[in-house]
């Protein structure tokens, strides 16, 4: 199991648990991997700052709102790519990795691919 012992000035991810199962959709089989991870302080700060907290009502125009959303979506993609890279996950040929909050600095990563 990967672990980090202290907070560092670098972006770090700790994998605290892993699991996997096979799912069947019609005549195709998929491997679904689940990872529970913890972010260090630097990574968590980037994750939080990439969150879109404002609502549409915060902005006078739809264009301002869409620009804010596009900015936050781009920031989140950068953070997610750092997490995936730290975990060694590479998406290609239909492989999908999804990251979601669980609690505080703990996140879940779901990685699926056809067999």
How would you summarize this macromolecular structure in one to three sentences?
By secondary structure, the protein is of the alpha+beta class. The protein contains 2 helices and 4 strands; from the N terminus they run E-E-H-H-E-E.
Please render the helix and strand layout as text.
Layout: E1 13-25, E2 28-39, H1 41-49, H2 62-87, E3 96-103, E4 106-114
Antiparallel strand pairs: 1-2, 2-4, 3-4
What does this protein look like?
The chain has helices spanning 41-49, 62-87, and strands at 13-25, 28-39, 96-103, 106-114. With 115 residues, it is α+β, with helices and mostly antiparallel strands. Helix 1 packs antiparallel against helix 2. The longest helix has 26 residues, at 62-87. It is globular. The model has no long low-confidence stretch (mean pLDDT 89).
Topology pattern, helix = H, strand = E: EEHHEE
Order of adjacent strands in the largest pleated sheet? 1-2-4-3
Q: What kind of sheet is the major sheet? A: 4 strands, antiparallel
Silhouette: globular
Helix count from the secondary structure assignment:
2
What Rg, in angstroms, do the CA atoms define? 17 Å
| Poorly predicted residue ranges | none
Average pLDDT rating: 89
Beta-strand content estimate: 35-45%
Approximate helicity band: 25-40%
Total strands? 4
Count of the separate structural domains: 1
Structural class by helix and strand composition: alpha+beta
Distance between the termini: 25 Å
């Amino acid at each position: 199991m990967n672990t980090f012992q202290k907070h560092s000035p670098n972006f770090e991810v700790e994998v605290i648990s892993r699991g996997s199962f096979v799912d069947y959709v019609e005549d195709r089989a998929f491997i679904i991997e689940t990872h529970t991870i913890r972010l260090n302080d630097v990574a968590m700060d980037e994750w939080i700052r990439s969150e879109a907290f404002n609502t549409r009502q915060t902005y006078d125009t739809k264009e301002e709102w869409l620009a804010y959303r596009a900015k936050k979506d781009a920031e989140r993609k950068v953070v997610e790519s750092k997490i995936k890279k730290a975990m060694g996950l590479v998406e290609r040929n239909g492989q999908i990795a999804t990251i979601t909050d669980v609690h505080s600095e703990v996140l879940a990563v779901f990685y699926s691919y056809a067999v």
